[in-house]
From TrEMBL:
Keyword Transferase: no
Protein name per Swiss-Prot or TrEMBL: Helix-turn-helix domain-containing protein
Keyword list, A-Z: Transcription, Transcription regulation
Limits of the Bacterioopsin transcriptional activator GAF and HTH associated domain: 11-150
Keyword Transcription: yes
Annotated coiled-coil segments of the chain: none
Every HTH bat-type domain range: 171-222
InterPro entries cross-referenced by the UniProt entry: BAT_GAF/HTH-assoc (IPR031803), HTH_bacterioopsin (IPR007050)
Length: 237
C-alpha cells in the first residue's frame, strides 16, 4: 500500500517545475499537448520504478513512442482510447519521485499540462528541507522550485511493491501471493531477473497455472486503473 505521513505531524510541501522533454510525461505535453497525471509510482528496486500515468488529449501509444527514444525509459499501454488511457512508464535511470523519496520526502503529485511537468512532495519536519531541495535542483538542472509552504501531510503516490492499492482488494489470496512472489523474484524488473518457468518452479506450480494467476491479478489492477481513467482530469490532489 502507499506510504502516508504520520497524522498530526507537519510537513513542508515543495513543488518543482520540470521542462526537459527527456521525461516522457513532460515530452508528450511539450510535443503533443497531451496531459498526464501520475496515479501511482511503484518502486521495483535497483533504481527502477514503474510510473502509472492517466493520459488525456493524446494517443497512449504516443507515450510508448517517446519512451523508446529516451535513454533509461520504457513504456507500455495498459488501456487506451483514441485520445487517452493508461500507460506504465518504466524509469531505469532517473526517477525524480524516487530521488525525493530516498531522501525522506513523500511524493504526493506529478502531472504535466501545457508543456510543463510538475512534481510535488511533502517533506516531514524531521527532515532537512533545504538540503533535499538543494540536492534535487543540483541533480535535475531543468528543475525550478515553484513553491515551498507549510501544510498537512497528504497521501503519497509512492508504493513499495507490486501489490499497490489498485485492484488489491479484489484479488484472491493466491493471486496476491503469486504477484508478490513475482515482484520479489524480479519477474517485473527491467530486464527480468527471472522468467515464468523459473518462477513457476519456485512456487511449485505449472507455468500455465502461474500465468493464469498473474493475468488474473494484473487484470484486476488494470480494471481498477481503467475505472479511474474515466474520471475528469485533475491536477490538484
Amino acid at each position: 500500500m502507499s506510504t502516508e505521513s504520520a497524522s498530526g505531524h507537519g510537513v513542508t510541501r515543495v513543488e518543482f517545475s520540470l521542462t526537459s522533454p527527456e521525461y516522457p510525461f513532460v515530452g508528450v505535453s511539450v510535443e503533443d499537448g497531451g496531459r498526464m497525471v501520475l496515479e501511482e509510482n511503484v518502486v521495483r528496486g535497483d533504481g527502477i520504478c514503474s510510473e502509472f500515468f492517466r493520459v488525456e488529449g493524446v494517443r497512449p501509444e504516443r507515450i510508448v513512442e517517446l519512451a523508446e527514444v529516451r535513454d533509461g525509459f520504457d513504456a507500455r499501454t495498459l488501456a487506451g482510447r483514441e485520445t487517452g488511457g493508461l500507460v506504465e512508464v518504466i524509469a531505469a535511470d532517473d526517477c525524480p519521485l524516487q530521488f525525493l523519496a530516498e531522501r525522506g520526502a513523500l511524493p504526493v503529485d506529478a502531472h504535466s499540462v501545457d508543456g510543463e511537468g510538475r512534481v510535488v512532495a511533502d517533506i516531514p519536519d524531521s527532515e532537512d528541507v533545504g538540503s533535499i531541495v538543494r540536492e534535487f535542483l543540483e541533480s535535475h538542472p531543468d528543475a525550478v522550485l515553484v513553491s515551498k509552504r507549510s501544510g498537512s501531510p497528504a497521501r503519497s503516490i509512492l508504493s513499495g511493491g507490486a501489490t499497490s492499492e489498485f485492484g488489491a482488494d479484489a484479488m484472491t489470496d493466491r493471486q496476491r501471493e503469486v504477484l508478490v512472489a513475482a515482484q520479489e523474484a524480479g519477474y517485473y524488473d527491467w530486464p527480468r531477473e527471472t522468467n515464468g518457468s523459473e518462477l513457476a518452479e519456485q512456487l511449485d506450480v505449472t507455468p500455465p497455472t502461474l500465468h493464469k494467476h498473474l493475468r488474473a491479478a494484473e487484470g484486476k489492477i488494470v480494471a481498477d486503473f481503467v475505472e479511474r481513467c474515466s474520471r475528469p482530469f485533475e491536477t490538484d490532489r
